UniProtKB/TrEMBL annotation, chain A:
Keyword Zinc annotated: no
Name of the protein described by the UniProt record: Ras-related protein Rab-20
Localization: Cytoplasmic vesicle membrane; Cytoplasmic vesicle, Phagosome membrane; Golgi apparatus
Cofactor(s) listed in the protein's UniProt record: Mg(2+)
GO biological process, one term: endocytosis
Keyword field contains Glycoprotein: no
TrEMBL record, chain B:
UniProt xrefs under Pfam families: CNH, Vps39_1, zf-Vps39_C
Positions of transmembrane segments: none
Sequence ranges assigned to domain CNH in this UniProt record: 23-296
CHCR repeats: 563-727
Gene Ontology BP terms: autophagy; endosomal vesicle fusion; intracellular protein transport
Protein name, per record: Transforming growth factor, beta receptor associated protein 1
Organism from which the protein derives: Lepisosteus oculatus
Amino acid sequence: AKMKKPDVKLVILGDMNVGKTSLLHRYIERKFKDTISTVGGAFFLKQWGPYNISIWDTAGREQFHGLGSMYCRGAAAVILTYDVTNWQSLVELEQRFLSLTDTANSDCIFAIVGNKADLTNLKAAAAETGEERESNGNLAGAQFPASPKMHKQVQPEDAVALYHRILRYKMLEEKCSPPAEAMCFETSAKTGYNVDLLFERVFDMVVPGILKKKTEAMSNTVDLEDCSDMQRTKLGCCG
Amino acid sequence: MSVKAFELVLAVERELLMGDKPRINIECIECCGKNIYIGTNDCFLHHFLLEEKSSSKGNPAFAAQKQLQRHLGLKKPVNELKAASALNRLIVLCDNTIMVVNMLNLEPVPSGAKIKGVVTFTVNENPVNGDPFCVEIGVISVKKRTIQIYMVYEDRVQIVKELSTPEQPSAIGLDGYFLCLALTTQYIILNYNTGASQDLFPYDSEERKPIVKRIGREEFLLAAPGGLGMFATAAGISQRAPVRWSENVIGAAVCFPYVVALDEGFITVHSMLDQQLKQTLSFRDGHILQDFEGKVVLTTTKAVYVLVPLPLERQIQDLLASHRVEEALVLAEGARRNIPKDKFQVMYRRILQQAGFIQFGRLQFSEAKEHFRKGHLDVRELISLYPLLLPTTSTFTRSHPPLHEFADLNHLTQGDQKKILKCKRFLISYLSEIRSTEVANGYRDDVDTALLKLYAEANHESLLDLLVSENACVLMDSVPWLEKHKKFFALGLLYHYNGQDDAAVQLWMQIVNGELHDDTRADLYEYIVDFLTFSSKQDLIWKYADWALQKNEKVGVQIFTKRPEDEEKKGKLNPDNVIKYLHKYSQAIILYLEHLVFEKNIQKEKFHSHLAALYLDRVLQLHSQSETPSEELSSSRTKLQNLLQKSNLYRVQLLLGKIKDTDLKFECAILYGKLEEYDKALHILVHQLKDFQAAERYCLWASEDKDPSYRQRLFHMLLALYMDPSISNDALVMAAVDLLNRHAEVFDAVRVLRLVPESWSVQLLCPFLSGAIRESMHSKRMSQVALGLARSENIIHKHEKMKSKGGPIFLSEKKGCQLCHNTFSEPEFVFHPSGIPIHTHCAAKRNRESPSRRQYPNVNNHT
């Protein structure tokens, strides 16, 4: 019932508890708050320049897994999300979620995102502004860690390797796809680290697709002016 | 988080249907206009008319009137009912058979049209076939994995298509060519025209009853795993986020913007706009939930109820009343399509305004501002919350019904001063933002006056900016306010803006004089002077200039000296009047005359003489005061000397008369110089002042811009003074030598050498001599150069002349005249313009013969 029709669809996939909703919430609301497990799915409309981009936040729970391919149908971009402190969450992306993207557009763009980077990366933890730290203080301990709190289980190289396997799976040419370095991210929804970068890069990459779709729609329209011109030249030939 | 979106109203009570027979249950229901058809498990069809009426309290109520009931002749329950009102038929499913009955008498059609072997069916409400006299239905057949499409006509049915499905279907929806089916393990979309199928999502239909509910063009609502209500389009995508039901939903319907669902104990209402649960109504033994033409109808096994939606505006007002701004706005926004545009706009603006005030009450100012802006709030509504801000002349009254619940700011904040301050700061920023926009149109007076009051109260620096720029502050209302807050300077600005400059200056004067206290400007006195300087009102200037001058002549006189350049047009002050006026201010008058003479460059004897006389008086006065020369004295003298030297306009004799008997010798010398009485001047310098350098400088100054002989005369005069044999002393001799050596080029060397005594050594005059020789050599060579240049110029001119005359013409006996072809015997000839010589007589003859065609009008004689 939203007034604006989305021009393009973007879907966030990933195992439960990796922070899909938090990522989206951080980007849209510029805040980090405790979220409850997503039921079914939710979506947001984001105005990006002249375009409306719908972003679907899916439920990671097994129970709702069957809905995934419907959400992915016609998607122009899929953000596959894992938790950097949880190796299994990366494995699940390939085993469980990748096949859901079969219904996405053939030229769909993939981004691989390791969330919760603040737990293992001091830089990501420090991205938080003073004001936010104050307001989040009682949520998760006011002191940010002097040393990483948790063991990092997924290295960036693992994500890059997955990205290449995805391209092979989708039978996409490496040359024609965005490079892995541009599409693998480590983010922190809690501190906002890399979150804007992620979404904005993906948005920028789907815009050419929208334009292409629009020009295709335009070329299907019959131009009456052109037509009459053609007729006139024909008449000229015959006469 | 509840909204009252619907009210549950009993429509057909048990008594009317089955009385007290316990085993009879409602099986299915259909509504069509005011008609309600009910099928029961004892194979009866019931027909009621339902009248809507309001109870005494204004709550909705229904009165059902029994029309007819008919037994269908079987012992099976009536499973499903659909009305085809265009055909005047009811389509009835009973005992796996679809039969068609008349809507009015409930009799089966005479033709006995039937479809056998039907599990369940659905009507296509958006058929591709546009025939209004038939109804397209989709049927799940008792045959395994089979779907059939039929056309139902007034008295016949016709099969259109039969399709097989990969699994057994159990629920069906139909829109256009698209079938939405619940299969054993999943939902699919099946295009019965092309046969193309599209998987939607998995669902275990054996574990839980599937729901397929068409909710609009090519869109279905489906029961999904985990108790979700999922939306799916015919293209197989989801355009809305799912709603969360309980696990055991029996039926669902859409009544925009709500999704209503029924389970064993409750009716739940979710918004399609934000997917939130909005209302829950307890409903026991719920059996059917269906919507018919926007009306949501429910039944238990015994009675029928209608879920009556509350008017949207009332829902929104309820939400606003409980301060749920976001939800109210979403609901209003969602209703845009369902309400005529102009009506919507009025309603929506009001809601935005109300929302804004709620947020304002929570001190959420940026959100409030946004809503005020979008809602085109009459800004006076906001101003009127602040006591005393609106001017007394304002005609504003708050809108009715009120947009908010606040009496005023004190009520809103409960007297919390910090909050009041915050609110005031917000209003300042809001008003200053909108005052120059169209929002303020029509009541700029109110806005600007309110802003002025806020600024004054808050001691805000923008108060002055407001008053010096274009504004609409109401004078009558602002004066007491500014006085109260001791903003006297600002008040002056306000007076000025309103054309009351006299009042403004009067007020400012009082501040400077210490009668009023306002330290806005430390330099207020200078400000007033500046104000008068740029004022074009002469009476104002004359009125306050005295005060300004008495305070400080130097600054005060700027009123006259710094007047704007463009004043000429508006009639400027007459300098004579000013001088007369300034007479009593000794400093000011000098400054003013200096302004006229040096800056304005006015070439009038009167001013120059006056200034010179004043300078002189000043010098004399200072001179007489102290014996030792003070700095002031020397600077005054410099000024005087400067004027005397530079100006040629003052009356020399007059000044000379005053100066002669004083010991201002130098000045005296300058004056003699002006009279060209150089001997007297130099005499003073040499003999009285004994300042040889000054004498030298004097000669140079006096001969400035004159020809060299003038200068030479002066220098000789000076030299003669130095070498006057009657007064000979060493100092003068030395001065003479220095003079000669320094200015060798000026003197006539021959005359000098005659004057110089024999006793002087060549050594002594060496610089002079070499200078003089150098000078004479130089002038000789210069004249040689000039001579050379003149000669060459002469040659150039000659050359030019020759060129224009042409080359020589050779004449000999061998050459013939071109006219008579005889040779030349005499040296005389006529030069034909084409460059050939002819006989003089031939030329004359030719001219005589053809007087009309004179070919050689300019005949030159060459010899």
